Amino acid sequence: MKSRLLILAACVLCASSAFAQLKPPIPQTELYLGGAYYRAGISNGTNFYGWQTEFDYNLSKHAGIVLDLGGQYKKTSGITVANYQYLIGPQLKHRTG
């Protein structure tokens, strides 16, 4: 009876580790939100702080479309200076597994 319980326990443990081998599904969309730092100039440069965001729409496992937006700001002598970036286009990915 003990040997049957040990065999059953071994089978359950081995079966549960098999689920760890499954590949996770590829997401349809991906979103990134974060902070940004930009330094304009080299020696006497100015520091800009702001935000960065990226939205990916995956068409397949290896291809998608990406929209990347960002903005950095600096207030100097009562004047706000802003720097904006945008990027949209295709994206190729190499996914392993």
Broad shape:
elongated
What is the succession of H and E elements?
HEEEE
Individual helix count: 1
First and last CA, distance: 41 Å
Average residue pLDDT: 86
Radius of gyration: 25 Å
Class by alpha and beta content: alpha+beta
Percent strand equals: over 45%
Sheet with most strands: strand arrangement: 1-2-3-4
The major β-sheet equals: 4 strands, antiparallel
Low-confidence stretches: none
Strand and helix map with partners:
Elements lengths: L1 H18 L9 E12 L5 E13 L4 E14 L2 E14 L5
Antiparallel strand pairs: 1-2, 2-3, 3-4
List keywords for this structure.
single chain, 4-stranded antiparallel β-sheet, elongated, 97 residues, alpha+beta
Account of the 3D structure:
It is a single chain. The chain has a four-stranded antiparallel sheet, with no helix packed on it. 1% of the residues are buried. The protein is elongated, with a radius of gyration of 25 Å. The longest helix has 18 residues, at 2-19. The chain has one helix spanning 2-19, and strands spanning 29-40, 46-58, 63-76, 79-92. The chain starts with a helix and ends in a 5-residue tail after the last strand. The mean pLDDT is 86. The protein has one helix and four strands; from the N terminus they run αββββ. By secondary structure, it is of the alpha+beta class.
